[in-house]
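Friendly challenge for the regulars: who can give me the structure tokens for this chain first? No prize, just bragging rights.
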Amino acid sequence: MTEPGPKVVVDASVVVKWMVREEDRDRALMLREAHLKGEVNLCAPDLLLYEVCNALRFCPDFTGEDVEASAGALLGLSLRLSPPTLHTLGGAAREAFKHGVTVYDAVYLSVAGAEGAQLVTADKDFHGKLSGDPRVCLLSSEKFLDIFEHE
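First reply, four minutes later:
Bragging rights claimed.
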């Protein structure tokens, strides 16, 4: 294997696209495949698991069994999941006030900061509130492709 690739924090808006056919699903799958090949190191706060399962619960075609199977598949990907710490929670609170977002959303940004990672989101409203923060990348943007230029 080559030298480890960049660290990337993914939020639920990206990960849901791994299981549901939505706009930019091809890009989300490209990121997952890069992780599986060891080209990118995906991480997220452990909140991701709950957010993804909750989003899938409200998908019309999903049953409880489908959500459970998706949770199992997600756990099998060996994402690096960060448990809550005072450092990340404090960072999330500060980012939430700074950008006018929820602490739930800001924890992804806080983990990205703690990990020295890029945050990838598909949530255009969330991205728009972050006022050009260089740690944040919209899945549909050209900047997203820069993640794969580390080689």
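The mean pLDDT is 94. The CA atoms of residues 12 and 42 lie 12 Å apart. Your move, everyone else.
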